Amino acid sequence: MEVGRDLEQRIAAFFGQHGYVTQCNAFAEGRSGGRHEIDVLAEKSDALTTYRVAVECKAWQAPIEKDVVSKLHYIVNDAGLSKGIIVSLGGCRSGAERTAADLGIELWGPDEIRRHLGDGVVDQMGAGAADASGATVAWGFPLRASTSAAEQLIRSSGKGRLGVRTLEDLTWFSVVWMPAYCVRVSVAQPEQKRFKTILRSITVDNVYEAFGGVNLGRLPAPSEEVRFDPKLALPPLLSEAKLQAGIRKAFAAYERVTAPAAVQRHLAALALLGIPTPASSLSIDASDLVYVPIYVGVLEASGQHRVEAVDGRTGLAWDQVSTILTSHLPHLRSHFAGS
Question: Distance between CA 247 and CA 252 in Å, rounded?
């Protein structure tokens, strides 16, 4: 509730800076006779008309569903308002996005919030709900690996093959909670049965890092909430909607091609995304933002820096994530500046 009120105040201040008169927790009478509570009501008048905007603020860790969109659409129509906007720290499901496009409701996810209110808002509030101790509570994987063992493993990677002398200095070390999307994908795969071909449904759970959408593999879906210091959680750079759009676009491109060389090229692209092939259709059934614990070390030699990562679940070096975080080192530095 505290985060929700903070978000409402920030949204009201933003509209106020653009010439609107705003009110938090306002009430509007509907044509139906009902009375609707609106998180932020923003009004701007000129000589001809009054423009009234209803803003619904959702400071949730989970993405919103389409029922939130439908409810606001009803309120906007019933109260005779000009526009409806939903501000959601956790983003939105694909169904909510499609419903919003159909009904004319504007959605502000993490990307839009950063653009309108600044990066700090999402960094402070977007990594999940906080418990009474101030820790973030979010879906993710528990941290099980030893901190000292992980640091030693990262230091040893900077000593070269023989491990005799230090080739790279460890300039920074910390546990980092890396954002990722756990996505459930179903495909219809043709299978030959005697004299006919039938379609068999195959479902996979893939985990994609939330910076560039690289597939981390079929990790077991997290079944519990984890608690961590919000300062240790990197904010996503890629929205859930953009990740899903990329998966659908890759599959649509695969469906269009017929030349053998092009088919093989698109099959390889789908394999990198963890999509089973051959397939005649694809659906994204579910998607959740989750957090993966990673021990991260920044190694330096002759002014060149790279990241070495250790899986916080297993204590093993994670070369794939090392490469990903090295490519996003400016994002890592900007978030942990001063630490």
Answer: 9
User: Is 40 within 8 Å of 30 (Cβ atoms)?
Assistant: no
- Render pLDDT for 133-152 as a digit per residue (tens, 0 to 9): 556 667 788 999 999 999 99
Residue 135, Cα to own-chain centre: how many angstroms?
19
Least Cα distance to 293 among 241, 239, 224 occurs for: 224
Q: Are 109 and 125 in contact (CB under 8 A)?
A: no
Burial (CB < 10 A; 0-12, 13-18, 19+), residue 215, is middle
| Cα–Cα nearest to 277, from 188, 185, 206, 183 | 188
* Calpha distance 45→112 (Å, rounded): 25
Domain limits of the chain?
2-126, 147-335
pLDDT tens digit string along 181-213? Answer: 999 899 998 887 777 778 889 999 999 999 999
pTM flag (> 0.85): no
CATH node for 2-126: 3.40.1350.10
Considering only CA atoms, give the Rg of the chain.
Answer: 24
In residues, how long is the chain?
Answer: 339
- Extract the tokens encoding 44: 């701007």
| Burial (CB count within 10 angstroms: exposed 0-12, middle 13-18, buried 19+), residue 286 | middle
Preceding amide of 293 cis, omega within 30: no
